Records
---
Amino acid sequence: MSLASLTKVVRWNVHCIDGGHTTRIYVLAGDTYGRLLGFTPLSEWAVFDAWIDPVFEEVTGIVHRQLRREAGASDCIVSVLGAACDPAPSGYTYDFTGMIWCPVCGSSNTQYGPDDPLQFSMMSVPQVTHSAWMALSDEQRHMLINEALKTKKCTIPDHD
Ligand SMILES: [Zn+2]
């Protein structure tokens, strides 16, 4: 059902400021433009490949229409992308904004970064699926993205 592809990753150390936990995660290595890595608070991960996944264009079009602009919408697009993806096995929605949670306690108050020197590996990273999205009508998709935009405080009046 869900595809996974062998991908070059680089190890990051995560320091949990609230809980003092020290853990490691892996993120995509190299030229990752257009390949978005999503995480959940339980450190589940999945890749959204915007180059080959038509849902990216679809969500982009909906966001542009909802916000009535095309410029400066990329942060909003990224923040609602998870709404168009099937949830992780835990039930959490993937977050593609670059948020890193502590895998031990779930706190989002973390500091993180790569090893020096960088530690690379090859890992099988799952790709997002869109079963629930595909089952929706166009109107339902618009409503879903509209709700997600409101939740993320991406609304029409803006300050940029
Ligand atoms: Zn923690």
---
Amino acid sequence: MDKFGGLWGWVPFWSVLLLSSGLGVMPQAQGWSKEGHIMTCQIAQALLEPEAAEAVHNLLPHYVNGNLSALCVWPDQIRHWYRYRWTSPLHFIDTLDDACTFEYSRDCHDSHGLKNMCVAGAIQNFTSQLLHYREGTGDRRYNMTEALLFLSHFMGDIHQPLHVGFTTDEGGNTIELRWFRHKSNLHHVWDREIIQTALADYYDKDIDLLLQDIEGNYTDGIWSDDVSSWKQCNDLSSCINRWAAESINIACKWGYKGVEAGETLADDYFNSRMPYVMKRIAQGGVRLAMILNQIFGDPEEGFSAAT
Ligand SMILES: [Zn+2]
């Protein structure tokens, strides 16, 4: 069945004549913190079926020993490099202020109005590129390794609620406040602070322990009945739109609501928002696995590339 087929005709095949030689790193955190992206990718990789696991293994540079999560933060590290500057708007969506909705045609563009240049468009685009992997001819228009890393990263970003935020405050970046005793802003609270505080307070700063808790929640815990609906997807573009809409909905109800610039956020905010952060990381991972399994799985059951 050509589940997601027929959607790709319009996708702009952005010039992705990118080389794999430059997978270097530079410390910088934008998007889910490093930990958020690592957990998203570890969850996904553990859920891959054999064909997808093998394809991912083949696409990764040998120095990561088959560990996708080791490079899931790479798109944040290179987004300001001259060659990759075009990818910078692909990490987020600026929605209409206070609308609390996502509409692809209204909201998915960069600051110059260029269409499809947002995280929802990027997920479509890189999925589309990876569909050519199966053709086995090594389509030279695309760098499949980079497409895998971008897709894996952006599936994390679209699930970070404040990455689908309001335009004027840049997804909470301009809302400066304090997180407990230090200066922060609302965007960073959701990227990083909640995860860091959870790690420090409950997990002895051990990301593996936090990950075990998250995995326990969806395999045999509070979310185990929900997982099949999380990965339900008959039409990729409408699924992506739904995931973005979930994010702005959480951003409105739990991110922005009641928050004033200059205030201090502490225990109350942390305790009530932490479950949403953990759930979004789990959903991002489960859905990334779903997409990769579709891309690399049996062509009769998955979706196929546009010709
Ligand atoms: Zn990002």
